[in-house]
Each structure stands twice: as structure tokens, then as C-alpha cells.
Amino acid sequence: MKAYAYPTGEPLNEYGLLELNEISLSADSKTVRAVALFLMAAADEMDRMGESYGHLHMQDESDAWKEEWPDIVVCNPNE
């Protein structure tokens, strides 16, 4: 899997984090399903934890994740 994006503006923090107006995943159907499963699990964890939810990394949570993939992080929108 490879990920591509178009930034919206300037970096938001000292680490260079950018807000994006589009992301593109270049992946086969098996990989897209693995990403979908991770996103569903992250949503379930958000519901379970409520406001105490922080963030989850796909590389830490998914057995399907591969070292050459970019990590996907699902963050609490209130942080």
C-alpha cells in the first residue's frame, strides 16, 4: 500500500503535520479490507472509551499491517 495526499495549507505543528484535502490509497482489495477493518475497530474503540479515547495506530493494532506501509492513525477529533 502507498498513500498520497494533497495538503490544504501550512504545517500545523513542529512535526510538520498537514491538514489534507484528499488522500489516495494505492492498494489491492485485501489491503483495502484490512484498512477498513482497522477503521471499524478504531470507531468501536472510540465509542467504548468516549472522551478518554486518544488515538490508535494501524501498525500497532492490525496483524495485517506491513513494515513498508504508511501508518494510519485515528485520532480523537477533540484533541
Question: How would you describe the overall organization of this protein?
Answer:
The chain has 79 residues and is of the alpha+beta class. Helix content is 32%, strand content 24%. It is built from two helices and four strands, in the order ββαβαβ. The strands form two sheets. It has a two-stranded antiparallel ribbon. Strands 3-4 form a two-stranded antiparallel sheet. The relative contact order is 0.19.
β-strand number: 4
Please trace the helix and strand order, writing H or E for each element: EEHEHE
Q: What strand line-up does the widest sheet have?
A: 1-2
Largest sheet properties: 2 strands, antiparallel
* Silhouette: globular
Nearest-integer average pLDDT: 94
Q: What share of residues is helical?
A: 25-40%
What separation lies between the terminal Cα atoms?
Answer: 28 Å
Q: Which segments are poorly predicted (pLDDT under 50) over 5 or more consecutive residues? A: none
Number of helices: 2
Quaternary assembly: single chain
Tally of individual domains:
1
Structural class: alpha+beta
Per DSSP, what share of the residues sits in E-state strands of 2 or more residues? Answer: 15-25%
Rg value: 14 Å
What descriptive keywords fit this protein?
two-stranded antiparallel sheet, single chain, 2 helices, 79 residues, two-stranded antiparallel ribbon, 24% strand
Short description:
The protein is of the alpha+beta class and 79 residues long. 32% of the residues lie in helices and 24% in strands. The chain has one domain (2-75).
